[in-house]
Amino acid sequence: MSNQIAAPPTDSAYIAHLWDHPQLTIAIFGLQANSPEAFAMYGAAGIPEQMEEALKNAPGLLGVRFFAEGNGGMQLQYWHSHADLALFARQMPHSAWWKWLNDNEGKGISFYHEIYQCKTAEAVYELGSVPVGPATFCKTSAVKGGEGRSQERQRRFVEAAQEK
What is the value of pTM for the model shown? Predict the structure, then answer.
């Protein structure tokens, strides 16, 4: 993941150039632990540390956000393309994590995932917003006249996808 992106404008709302990623794929991975023991079992398996290391070097991974949620947590991952995500999923250590899950089925811990292949996308940050999500991996620029409507911003995404 690259963090070599210029700082966003500080004097206006700004937009992340998601049209530079016309095959953008978003993956949501969630963990649900039904007891403190189940959560401890997951931690003892070393998966959180393995995952952190594997994601640092995953080709095509643009960014990751972590969220606490209910009885577990969730990762929101931004991928350059579905092909990049699929390649990562078929390799170690990812395949070992799914084996661990299957071996521990019914022991109070479960996972879920959602995969979205974006057809259009936008990320707009109002004045004073600290960069998060796409603003951490995309170029940004001040919102210009004519870009104030969602349809116009998303049109740029569609046009970029058609060009590639």
Answer: 0.85
